[in-house]
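does this look right to u?? pyridoxal-5'-phosphate version
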Amino acid sequence: RAYNFNAGPSALPLEVLEKAQQELVNFQESGMSIMEMSHRSATFEKVHNEAIFRLRKLFAIPNDYEILFLQGGASLQFTMIPMNFLKNGKTASYIMTGVWSEKAYKEAKLFGEPVQIASTKENQYRNIPTFDEIDVDTDDAYVHVTSNNTIYGTQWTEFPNTGEVPLIADMSSDIMSKPVDISKFDMIYAGAQKNLGPSGVTVVIARKDFLAKANSEIPTILKYSTHAESNSLYNTPPTFGIYMLGEVLKWIEEKGGLTAIAQQNEEKAKLIYDVIDNSNGFYTGHASKESRSLMNITFRVADEELEQQFLSEAKEAGFIGLNGHRSVGGCRASAYNSVPLETCKALSDFMIAFKTKHQ
Ligand code: PLP
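got this back:
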């Protein structure tokens, strides 16, 4: 297997891929693939409902929250959220921690007058704002945060208390990488393709009474209520993606659940951050230490030329996806749930050897 550090879509557990391979042509003796089956069949419905059940159990999602499987990626949520909730001149607050927050804010401007209440842009998005920089307007329809900033490699560890104002989080790049107190949020959304499965499924977790406040004068398919009322089977869902998501959730369960996954994610990230921190400036992390992400580790190599050499030697050695995002350059190792500890160990060994050779 490749040492896959892709930022998304990213590595999937080998065990899950092998199981899917076994079941691909003849799913549970049905004589057909899960992809060839009606989404209204009892067999698919069981797969679908089990995925929802596992998500609720593993992520400790209370019963007063809906779990929806949508399409259109996290990017469609940037649009659906303001379309559903910015009605009657309501405002919303956006906390700006990177390019994905900017994209979410830009969509909200099409529907109302969102406000940026805190931004770390001036610091090249190296850090997460402190709570005293966040001043929530109590009239807001919601506050929006990006829990993990895939491009800059920063992550919230604690979330601000927004009082009566609903808190919405884009958790695309750290959902289910650790236990989270769901009750702090009115809505959580994430594209599945980093921690939960293949691309094509978007998970939305939302408090039922928050969804009840949504605008009803919008197209049917863009209303959360449409999907909530039909158990996410309003139209043909991404059946294969939902099946894979269910299998990834089983794998998380077998690994010991989110506490065990979180512990392993910490160990994995530490292997790489330790090399950066002990390199006497040969490697420098992009993110401020207190805001570092355990999912996306962003760093630079001593100079431009060496950095190119690092990326090309890494590629030759079998490491995939280490180039930083095209908007910021540098290097980025994405160590999501499915990236094995050995893969991170291999990268940390490679970084040490590269430094010894070139410093
Ligand atoms: N939000 C974050 C934090 C992301 O990292 C990404 C994709 O990388 C997106 C949103 C966009 O997700 P999608 O491609 O599913 O629309």
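The chain has a mean pLDDT of 97. idk if thats expected tbh
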